[in-house]
Design goal:
The complex is a heterodimer.
Chain A (H helix, E strand, L loop, with lengths): L1 H4 L18 H23 L7 H35 L7 H25 L6 H13 L1 H12 L3 H11 L6 H20 L7 H11 L2 H6 L1 H4 L2 H12 L8 H12 L8 H10 L3 H11 L4 H12 L14 H14 L5 H9 L5 H9 L7 H13 L3 H17 L3 H11 L2 H18 L5 H4 L10 H17 L3 H13 L8 H12 L8 H15 L18 H27 L4
Chain B lengths: L5 E3 L3 E7 L12 E7 L4 E7 L17 E8 L3 E6 L4 E6 L4 E7 L4 E8 L4 E2 L2 E2 L2 E7 L2 E6 L4 E5 L5 E5 L7 E8 L2 E6 L3 E6 L9 E4 L7 E6 L6 E6 L3 E6 L8 E4 L5 E6 L6 E6 L4 E7 L11 E2 L14 E4 L13 E6 L8 E7 L2 E6 L3 E5 L5
Parallel strand pairs in B: 23-27
Antiparallel strand pairs in B: 1-32, 2-3, 3-4, 4-5, 6-7, 7-8, 8-9, 10-11, 12-13, 13-14, 14-15, 16-17, 17-18, 18-19, 20-21, 21-22, 22-23, 24-25, 25-26, 26-29, 28-29, 30-31, 31-32
GO cellular component, one term (chain A): nuclear membrane
Organism (chain A): Esox lucius
InterPro entries (chain A): Nucleoporin_Nup85 (IPR011502)
């Protein structure tokens, strides 16, 4: 799956994509950090309250945007570090995929940074150029060094003027504009006067400072990209460029810089769309260029929070932000480990998130109980009762197959699954009838309130209690309990014969245990059981109870006799009055 | 909480444990081990938090944990314990129990011993869920309801208690050298005495009422009859195993499963718990009586309000139903130790002033200035 989780830029005819699998081991642990860290930021972002004043919110959004970018940078740096280590080894050969990965992250950060400057921070005229300068500087640090060296190599006064321009935030716009124009005119005059004619380098620098485009273009290799050219051009000709004018300069810069023959790369069109403030185009182009949803999902979500996206619904009902988040999260869900992150993303998709989660969560493989518990907790927290039942049933069935009756019961309790609890109780009773003794006494003796989950379970617990009382020689309590099991209809009819048989030793005691009334009730139960139309049909659980009719009749006879004798003794005992 | 940062490690952490420091030295621990889970290739890793010799008055320590070495682990690491300074025992979801040895010279790990199908079903694998050791003895428990006793110096199994439990045993700890405590998924705390030949527990304790599964257990380091457990409902229970079948006190701690609970080994008035709800709590008790307020009994109202941002030491007094005279003035403080809401905190360990924990967000947090 990591093929698609990997961020790939589909430049024209990229042959590397097919070799991806081999280098997964190097890239994927580092990329995983990206997914985890950005998930953390995402969840924090969703928690920002709507009622904050917009000024505070903007600062927070910018800070979150910077967080995202720092995560991307950290990832890039680590990839480069690892590449360095591989290179250092004697047989180290870094595959092209590695470099591709780094360059993609670079591109992603470049785009994100520009979006932050233009859309999220929404710098107004004046500080806009400053931000753009920072932006270019951040991504072309080495080139800028060279350019600065060239500029610094000559007279310091020019140098001074250069920094004055940069110090625009100390003045108001109009003040600055006046000062700047004045300075610009002065430099222009110097050029006209040929004051620097003696020194060709100085003259070139002067021309640059005036914003002479031809001269700038002559130094193309220093600038290396059209957007560096754009910013430099703006710096020296239109320092207080307004956001709305940007697109004009961007387009013309791009055309001037690139050869007319070369086709703009995807990155170029994306940046141009950004300069044109066409957010939707940026997102669309990024989605096409990168076959991974990570970048567009997070960026769109952030911009949605900044209320920058027009909420036009897509064909199938959800908006752009939700669509991208759903795509991203669905991809995450197929990863054997990162599926847990996806849950939070689905949570924040109000239209379809829940449905997607319901479908996906049942497909998570449950290798251990601990994992099943985590999945269950996710379902329970979101009141997904159907999924809870289904997961518990799978676990309970598995436990039952392995003869772990206690575990099976524990899962039934969690799902409040009375039917399965009944099934488990039947298993216990089967074992009892087969072996003559209860297995897993630690469970049955300590059922607690779980007993109430199913009638059969209640019966099991009470029946065991009867055995215990009998064992402890609390005969009258045992007798009372036994009777109540039948009269309160707790015991299944199929088990009544066994219960009545259990009563035999109590009836045969020298001491009278069952009172006359109780004996009457027992007799009633026996008649009830044996009367023609009420004979219980052979039960599939207890088929052996009705195998031999002769034994049955004999047993019934014995019971009747015992009951009669007990009744006699009881009447006598109760009738006797102490004188 | 200042000074506690996340280190992202690209694997979900199921267990973290400090390497023990010799009791004679007053050093702080510097090496910890982690185990991962839910990966196609799981690992155990050893990390170092650097030289603690250089400590200024500054609160801030640099020192991201650095990876020392790692080793592939077959199956999820369900539990992990240091057997001694060099060896680690792990419990695996495949049912295997493995001993790893750390070679200090070349900083590698090797596997000197492995019991591959220690826990199993008649047909199929049964995860081994817990391991505890008291060198050279090792005790493991699993989903198959078995308790197995090993010795690290012997090849085979020393003793197996078959069908010790009809439900899954989630955790085990030593009560005394020959007695262990287990907790299971039907909410029972069982005491087993290895000196007895029978395969029955010598004592069973449980909460009446709901059979809430218990996930973790820890014994008070000094007073061996005091035991803490945590379970599916996030409640912290304190038990006195000498008396009664019921817990001594219950406290609402977390809003989801409590995965681990630990008394601080040298300062047991402090307790730590971590949970599926993404929080790690530090419980601190102080009272003018000798008995910690844990033992003053009764069911207590909710201790702390839930919030994603750490409150600076939630100060709630214990409302105990059984206050008796002047010994009932116990006070319990609870603090969140993590800076913000995270995914489940699966494991924690505390030693000296150092705390380490691991989360499902694939992050490790280390705090070297735990206020003890």
């Amino acid at each position: 799956y990591f093929d698609s989780l990997r961020i790939c830029l589909s430049t024209g005819g990229c042959p590397f994509v097919h070799e991806v699998r081999k280098d997964e081991d190097i890239c994927s642990p580092i990329l995983r950090k990206l997914f985890n860290e950005s998930h953390h930021i995402f969840v924090g972002l969703q928690g920002i309250r709507d009622d904050l004043p917009s000024k505070n919110k903007k600062t927070q959004f910018v800070s979150i945007s910077k967080n995202y970018r720092s995560v991307i940078r950290a990832c890039m740096e680590e990839l480069q570090q690892v590449a360095g280590k591989v290179e250092g080894k004697s047989d180290g050969r870094i595959s092209p995929v590695f470099f591709l990965q780094v360059s993609i992250l670079l591109a992603v950060e470049l785009i994100w940074n520009l979006c932050e400057v233009l859309f999220i921070d929404a710098a107004p005229a004046g500080s806009l150029l400053l931000h753009l300068l920072d932006w270019v500087r951040l991504h072309k640090a080495d080139v800028d060094e060279k350019a600065r060296d060239v500029l610094q190599s000559e007279s310091p006064t020019e140098h001074q003027a250069y920094w004055d321009v940069v110090g625009v935030n100390t003045l108001t716009l109009t003040e600055f504009d006046v000062k700047w124009r004045h300075w610009h005119e002065e430099v222009d005059r110097c050029l006209q006067d040929q004051s620097f004619a003696s020194n060709p380098h100085l003259e070139v620098i002067c021309k640059i400072l005036v914003g002479d485009e031809d001269v700038l273009l002559e130094h193309k290799e220093l600038l290396s990209t059209w957007y560096h050219f754009l910013v430099t051009r703006l710096l020296f000709s239109h320092p207080i460029v307004k956001p709305t004018e940007l697109h004009y300069y961007a387009q013309s810069s791009m055309h001037m810089f690139l050869d007319t023959r070369s086709v703009p790369e995807p990155l170029d069109s994306i940046l141009l769309a950004a300069f044109e403030f066409d957010i939707h185009q940026v997102i669309k182009d990024c989605s096409i260029a990168l076959n991974n949803w990570w970048f567009v999902a997070h960026l769109t979500d952030l911009m949605d929070h900044c209320k920058l996206l027009q909420s036009h619904n897509l064909h199938f009902g959800s908006n752009l932000r939700e669509f991208l988040l759903l795509e991203y999260a669905s991809g995450l869900f197929t990863h054997h480990s990162l599926w847990q992150l996806a849950v939070d993303y689905f949570d924040h998709c109000p239209e379809f998130g829940r449905v997607y989660l319901e479908l996906q969560i049942e497909r998570v493989p449950l290798d251990t109980e601990r994992k099943a518990l985590k999945v269950l907790r996710i379902c329970e927290q979101r009141q997904m009762t159907e999924q809870v039942r289904s997961i518990c049933k799978i676990m309970a069935k598995g436990a039952l197959r392995n003869n772990r009756l206690g575990s099976a019961l524990s899962w039934s309790i969690r799902a409040k699954d009375a039917a399965f609890a009944t099934l488990i109780s039947e298993r216990f009773l089967q074992d009892y009838c087969a072996n003559g003794a209860f297995s897993d006494l630690d469970l049955i003796d300590n059922l607690g309130s779980a007993m109430l989950l199913s009638d059969r379970l209640t019966f099991l617990g009470k029946y065991r209690e009867f055995h215990r009382l009998y064992g402890e020689k609390c005969f009258s309590d045992a007798a009372k309990l036994l009777l109540s099991l039948m009269t309160a209809k707790i015991a299944p009819r199929t088990f009544w014969m066994t219960l009545l048989t259990d009563a035999l030793p109590l009836l045969e005691q020298k001491e009278v245990i069952f009172s006359a009334d109780q004996t009457h009730e027992l007799m009633f139960c026996l008649e009830d059981l044996t009367s023609g139309n009420c004979l219980p049909k052979p039960d599939r659980w207890f088929p052996f109870l009705f195998q031999d009719e002769d034994i049955d009749t004999t047993k019934i006879e014995i019971l009747r006799l015992a009951l009669a004798r007990n009744l006699a003794k009881a009447i006598v005992k109760e009738g006797t009055v102490e004188v | 909480m200042e000074g506690i940062n996340a280190k992202y490690v690209s694997q979900k952490i199921s267990k973290t444990r400090w390497r023990p420091v010799s009791s004679s030295s007053l050093q702080q621990p510097d090496i910890f081990a982690t185990g991962s889970w839910d990966n196609e290739d799981n690992k155990i890793s050893l990390w170092s938090i650097g030289d603690n010799g250089v400590s200024g008055m500054d609160d801030e320590f640099e020192g991201d944990p650095q990876l020392v070495c790692e080793y592939k682990h077959n199956g999820d690491v369900m539990d992990l314990q240091f057997l001694d300074q060099d060896r680690i025992v792990t419990a695996s979801s495949t049912g295997a129990v493995t001993i790893f040895r750390h070679n200090h010279n070349n900083q590698t790990l090797s596997v000197p011993q492995l019991w591959e199908r220690a826990h199993h079903y008649p047909c199929g694998k049964a995860p081994c869920t817990g391991v505890v050791c008291n060198s050279p003895e090792i005790v493991t428990v699993g989903e198959d309801g078995r308790i197995i006793l090993f010795r690290s110096d012997q090849e085979g199994v020393t003793r197996t208690i078959e069908n010790a439990d009809s439900s899954t045993i989630h955790a085990v700890t030593f009560l005394r050298t020959t007695e262990i405590l287990t907790v299971n998924s039907i909410g029972q705390l069982k005491l087993w005495d290895f000196r007895q030949r029978s395969n029955e527990p010598s004592q069973i304790l449980s909460l009446t009422g709901d059979r809430v599964p218990l996930h973790c257990v820890d014994r008070h380091p000094n007073q061996q009859h005091i035991v803490a457990t945590g379970g599916q409902d996030g409640m912290l229970c304190i038990w006195d195993v000498r008396q009664g079948k019921m817990p001594f006190s219950l406290m609402e701690a977390h809003s989801a499963e409590m995965w681990e609970v630990h008394f601080h080994p040298s300062n047991p008035d402090h307790l730590f718990s971590c949970s599926e709800d993404g929080s790690l709590l530090h419980w601190e008790t102080s009272s003018n009586s000798d008995t910690p307020s844990f033992l003053q009994g009764g069911r207590n109202a909710s201790i702390t309000s839930r919030s994603a941002i750490a409150p600076a030491g939630g100060n709630q007094s214990l409302i105990s139903a059984w206050l008796t005279g002047d010994s009932g003035k116990g006070r319990l403080e609870t603090t969140h130790m993590l800076p913000s809401q995270t995914l489940s905190v699966n494991s924690l360990d505390v030693l000296g002033q150092c705390l380490v924990c691991g989360t499902d967000g694939e992050a490790i947090y280390v705090n070297r200035l735990v206020p003890i």
